[in-house]
């Protein structure tokens, strides 16, 4: 693969080529599981990259902004937030500490700043409360960053999940993109849909059940790029309403690996895998 292929699009939540991490060592050897075969193919189709290195609190903020909205909407909100509260922004903390800046932020001002991300009133409340909680326990952005990068992964995940407004996907994104933890495969709507549609996870599996299946069947070093590449695959090929295989089975690079659960090319029908007749037991 070329160096260009190792860089991912800026619209992905990892922050693109500036988001930390390095090209991953990738050996397209024979996969041990079908899930690994899918990830190997995605790695050849898109990119192969290890992650880590993002500031933990900024990563948390970025992921909160992405909740229930598109990257097209959340990225400008993140940029506007950092322009106001980070670095030399007019509302930045004197010590350039984003935790302190948001802990002391005026909620209405913060909400206006991130309005492009949608649900801005709720998200501003969540971020201010999270900043206050993190400052009280870890002292600063730096202290929180050290905890995320150096703490025992399950303990870090459990602590992140205790923060109001932080769910499993958000916690896992922080572990992956900041902590650089191998074996972490965040499950968003694309990952949830695709691995059930492939027939790798049970059709009725919730997000945590899909995560358990994928993390058990994909080598730890491939989970990072597997997550972001799956998202891109979901945008380009395996969309929710009109997957590529609907009109032409050969148009999808996963055609030979997919069970097409909930997709019916003969009738043009597409349903959530949990609603597919064959998933009823």
Topology as a string of helices (H) and strands (E): EHEHHHHHHHHHHHEE
Determine the number of helices (DSSP H or I, runs of at least 4 residues): 12
Helix % is 40-55%
Major sheet: order of its strands?
1-2
Give the topology:
Layout: E1 22-23, H1 34-45, E2 49-50, H2 56-66, H3 71-85, H4 98-103, H5 107-113, H6 120-138, H7 141-150, H8 153-161, H9 168-177, H10 189-197, H11 207-217, H12 220-236, E3 263-264, E4 269-270
Antiparallel strand pairs: 1-2, 3-4
Structural features, described:
This protein is mostly helical and 281 residues long. It is 48% helix and 3% strand. Strands 1-2 form a two-stranded antiparallel ribbon. A two-stranded antiparallel sheet has the order 3-4. A hairpin with a 4-residue loop joins strand 3 (263-264) and strand 4 (269-270). Helix 6 packs across helix 7. The radius of gyration is 19 Å and the shape is globular.
Quick recap:
By secondary structure, this protein is mostly helical. It has 12 helices and 4 strands, in the order βαβαααααααααααββ. The protein has a two-stranded antiparallel sheet with strand order 1-2. A two-stranded antiparallel sheet has the order 3-4.
